[in-house]
Amino acid sequence: MPDVLVHTRRPGLLVAIAVLAFALLAALVPDLFTGQDPLAGVPAEKMQGPSPGHLFGTDETGRDIFARVVHGAALSLQATVIAVVVALVAGSALGLLAGFRGGALDSAIMRCVDVLLAIPSILLSLALVTALGFGTTNVAIAVGVANLAQFARLMRAEVLRVRSGVFVEAARAGGVRWTGVLGRHVLPNALGPVLALATLTFGTAVLEVSALSFLGYGATPPTPEWGSLVAGGRGFLATAWWMTTFPGLTVAAVVLSANRLSRAIEGDVR
User: pTM of the predicted model, to two decimals?
Assistant: First the structure.
């Protein structure tokens, strides 16, 4: 079992955990951090810079940007989690079949995986969401499919390592069906590195979901979402830098924190 607590003496990891905890709480209980309505604007307070009353300033309609960032965490992280689950489940299933069954099935699956890996995931996500249509759920599915290839390749490698083990051979010799061997012996012993990859992919998915939202494929305005918040402030960079800067820093902080946590988990797994 990964012992992440051993690493809590490292300030960088503690900061990463704190940032991710803040983002999770913001998604689940936004009213814990702000009581302001993210959709209601006060025209008299529009385009105000950061202040004690508006930590991240206000936008062109007087809406509080901090409130919009906090409430935007729900959609952004929901899409990210869906994307990671899609990539993890679909990619792992393909890797399991390819590694355990072998033969022509293995060759066919891995050739498809090679094709997917040859295309940058953000470009593949963009192509898929263009075909699927607008909406946060479609963005999540597109990002998940675009990232499943790395899970398939890693799971296949782990299955090839595990399936030659003595306990697997003993199960086969005992007459256990291949599905039983796969579920009881191979999968549990191959899952560790794949879960570490899921943590790393979480950061990538946050970035790609935000990028697609920035391009207008996510939630319909004025619903807050991190990528759309960055896009909404790009026309005011010269006069209201905070409109883009604070949502952008939020995305960067979550991505970097997820990557830091994934490195700690990967080290424990190994």
Answer: 0.89
HEC readout, 180-221: HHHHHHHHHHHHHHHHHHHHHHHHHHHHHHHHHHHCCCCCCC
The model's pLDDT over 199-235, given as tens digits with 9 standing for 90+, comes to 889 999 999 999 999 999 999 889 999 999 999 999 9
**Architecture in CATH of 7-36+57-269:** Orthogonal Bundle (1.10)
Question: Which residues of the chain, if any, have pLDDT below 50?
Answer: 1-2, 4-5
Query: Could you read off the pLDDT of 230-266 as tens digits, one per residue?
Result: 999 999 999 999 999 999 999 999 999 999 998 888 7
Strand residue runs (E) in 39-196? none
| Cα 121 → chain centroid | 13
- DSSP for 239-263, please give it: T-THHHHHHHHHHHHHHHHHHHHHH
Sorted by where each begins, the domain ranges of the chain are 7-36+57-269
Give the closest residue to 79 by CA, choosing from 208, 248, 200. 208
Q: What backbone phi and psi angles, to 5 degrees, belong to 55?
A: -55, -40
